[in-house]
Amino acid sequence: MDRQWITWASQARRPVAVTGAGISVPSGLPTVSKTWRGLTLKEIFTIGFYRRDPLTFYDCYRDMLLDWREAAPNPAHQALAKSNVRIITQNMDGLHQKAGSSDVLELHGNLRELICERCHALYPSHVAEINPQPHCPTCAELLKPNIVLEGEDVRHIAVAADWVGQADLLLVIGTKLEMEPVCMLPKIAGQNGVPVIPCNKKSEVLLPELCGYLNA
Ligand SMILES: [Zn+2]
User: Fold this and answer.
1) Distance from Cα 61 to the centre of ligand 1, integer Å
2) Contact predicate 32/42, CB 8 Å
3) Does the chain have fewer CB atoms within 10 Å around its N or its C terminus?
């Protein structure tokens, strides 16, 4: 491993990690480039597609739930949890929490829940496994998976910016952070003179080693 990384890691007291789809690939989860019935997940998981064709959307969502239920955290998730690193994630899979992380901001929501857009009640996502188009028992509105679709605003971005503002090391794992507004997170670190360690490949190998230095 890069000597500079080891120095940064061993000096860090308030590390924050921003994670994306790449960290969960070794757990068997797909990225948005996966195709489903000839369409990519990126094309399906948009607010426009959901509004136009919720039935097809839910078919795809149910298949994602199958992958998700079988997925377990890999050594990268486990290393971050063991070192109590604060996590800002673009993932919806909940694997950081399954690994034992408690400070987790889910910028894109989660696959655990469905939400009623009218009364904001939450329901467990397995409701969608027994009902092709689940509706809210209270107000009869179609329930929506509690995930952020393309075309919707990401969540918790102000808190995420605050966490990065307090950090003394930023890990960027399994994501390139090219999109607005998440691209501002490494910029905040840069403005504060905080080192940024990118880790886009082999995070399940690199992070257990790197996090060992965080514990030192
Ligand atoms: Zn409702």
Assistant:
1) 20
2) yes
3) C
Please say if the pLDDT value at position 50 is more than 80. Answer: yes
211 labeled binding residue: no
Q: Which of 77, 108, 126, 135 is catalytic?
A: 108
Helix axes 157-166, 184-191, angle to 10 degrees: 30
**Which domain does 142 fall in, by range?**
30-70+113-147
CA 34 / ligand 1 centre spacing (Å)? 32
Query: Average of pLDDT values for 51-60?
Result: 96
Q: What is the model's pTM?
A: 0.94
Q: Tell which residue, 55, 41, 18, has the closest CA to residue 172.
A: 18
CA of 126 to the centre of ligand 1 (A): 17
* pLDDT (tens digit per residue) in 107-140: 999 999 999 999 999 999 999 998 999 999 999 9
Please confirm, yes or no, whether 156 is among the known catalytic residues.
no
Contact partners, residue 166, CB within 8 Å, separation at least 6: 14, 16
Q: Are residues 96 and 192 in the same domain?
A: yes
Averaged pLDDT, 50-67? 95
Residues 22 and 36 in one domain: no
Q: For the chain, what is the domain count? A: 2
Q: Are residues 88 and 193 in the same domain?
A: yes
pLDDT of residue 215: 67
Same domain, 165 and 211: yes
CATH number of the domain bearing residue 63: 3.30.1600.10
